[in-house]
Amino acid sequence: MAARAGVAILTKAGAGWEVLHKEVIVPGHAMMVHVSHRMSRESFWLMGVYGDISKGQVSLLGFYERLQDRLTAFVRRQARTHWGGCFAAGDWNFVEFAKDRFPTARPDAAPERLLTCFNRIKDLCGLRNTAGGDPAPSLWSYSKRTSHGQVYSRLDRIYRPSHGWSNSAVVPVDTGKSDHRLIMVDVHVKTPRIEKAILAPRLPSLEILDKSRDFWPSVLRCWNSQTRDTVVSLEGWKIFKDQVLASGIREANTMKAAKKKDWVDALRNDCVPPEQIMDVVARANRQVWSKRTPPARMPAKWPAAIPTYEVKPKPSRHFVPSKDSPWKTPIRRPNDAPRGTTAAHPTFAKPADIKRVATLLQDRVARFAKASKEKWEKMTRTHSSEWFKQSSNKELDERGSRASISVEGLRRPDEDVARTDLGSMTTVARDYFHILHTPEPLDDARLAAQDMLLDEVRLHGRSRPDPNPDDIIEGPFTGEEMMSLLSKMPNTAPGPDGIPYAFWKRLIKVLAGLQDGDSPPRTFWSVFSDLLRDIARRGSSREGFKDANISLFYKKGDPTLVSNYRPISSMNTDCKMYTNLINARLAPWAVSKLHPNQKGFVPGRLMNEHTRLASEVVHLCDATETPGFVVGLDQAKAYDRVDQFWLLRVLVAFGLPAELILLISDLTNGCRSRVRINGGYSPYFIMKQGIRQGDPLSCLLFNFSIEPLAVKLREKIVGLSV
Questions:
Q1: Contact 327, 176 (CB under 8 A)
Q2: What pLDDT is recorded for position 605?
Q3: How far apart are CA 485 and CA 528, in angstroms?
Q4: Which secondary structure element, helix H or strand E, spans residue 681, and what is its range?
Q5: At 192, is the pLDDT very low, low, confident or very high (cuts 50, 70, 90)?
Q6: Strand 17-26 with 30-37, pairing
């Protein structure tokens, strides 16, 4: 705040704003602050101004001449780094254009010398009037009654940098507390520092699509065309998914267009509380004038919009002044006013009719949506407890799928400078993970060492019993196995095909409910069984069935280093249903063949057993004064470095059925992935090494791949006997 407390610049608390630098230009009348937003990484200069009129035009001209001189020195200092102009706002205490005052003919109009000085200040700071070069009379911000009558002027103005920024329409707001109106405007950066891309198509929420009359009939037509009287293949399944996605997006866009026509339904769908709607309506009616009774065609809509609000009819056909506003003069003369007595005042504010109220309410909804988005982005940046509840470090829903933080820049481990544009960042991430998922050449020495270790694994596997024959299922997947998938469909984000689990669950119910009709469609499980048989016969590396999006989740360290992010794969949900089926067949073998010390992800075993055991060993050593130490091993990029060829050899050594190994081999071989950053996607690359984080099958596969190491550790390391 300036020394004489004439100017104050405030930032919203808790919204990520930070003042990097502040400097008083003219004490009490002008100050400059450098403001930064931690989340978007945007920063800009903002100048607050209050024109000095303590001695009339003389002090005002002197103030602007001092402001020009000091701004010149300030800009020269900033030019050493980068000066792209600044924002400027305040009570300038003079009008820039003749139309900024009514009546326009005034003896104390701004002198030419003052305007010349002000234009030089605009050039120094690169200022552009947010109201444009020909502002409308409705933007007047000051009202005063003088000996010459009522005077209106636009003393309060907001300027933005002429390059790199845009703005919406200026909105004056009558506070009812001052002869000045509050001026508001939304400004937007044209080229954000964090570049956002257009999101890939995805099926809209079923809460939206269920309100459409045409979506589910369209889905059923597509289902019948692809499944009736034919055996479903992966190609036909892909066509059906594409048709569903196109139909869902089309219906959502149609409903969105209709939603804009009825702002009442829009507010209700956006869950705006009725008391907030009433608050906006009340403030709208305190604007300059009240309006006469709505026309006869409007009462049906008005009570439906605000049931508790009663519109009182006005006897006059014209507008009447509001009692609680300093703007006393009406727009038009009443019917009984004598003609020729006073000049007609220009119209500078629209009455609070339904369109005006709708605009205000829509602006309020936009602010609510913006506040929610800012809150979510803050949670993703700070990884608060609320964020973990929403995302669970996975991609839960449409918001959870964006839970990874905004990436400002990325660099390779061997680089010092981070790339900041979206295309370069996706290239850096793709190259890094492509190299990470490419195996090293297998030389003869390494192959011989693997053979020796696998011989020990075979002996270990033979010493462990096979699963119970009742738990081993071979051949085509049964209906009971497929029905068990219903409990394994969480609200995770969809993969590249854009189809979430929620759609498949709803489709299963819809098809099941139509089986009692005259010509029922095929059930979902019947068609899905055809699909599984086609995959078993011809493989799954077709039609993008195994494709996945890799989302980067920041762990720790330098946020520009690509290796400091955890890659989480969002696979197509129908592919995850398939991997869940294979995982269910692998689980009995994991229980019987993996050593009991392997607790993680094995059915019937708990991780906290190891935690409790470690705690008891520490207490035992303390009680018996036995020396010892605890060794913890953490494998960097553990899932990404699993050798697929080694994994299959381990499964063979443990004696798993050949049919199950073939299914796993087909599912892990030739997987395509693409990296997503700030909504943008890299080109696909093929994973020749590693297993995916986010695949239900990956946990048990990793357990099998690491078991040979555990066998050697148990041979070489002897612990305490308890």
A1: no
A2: 87
A3: 12
A4: strand 680-681
A5: low
A6: antiparallel
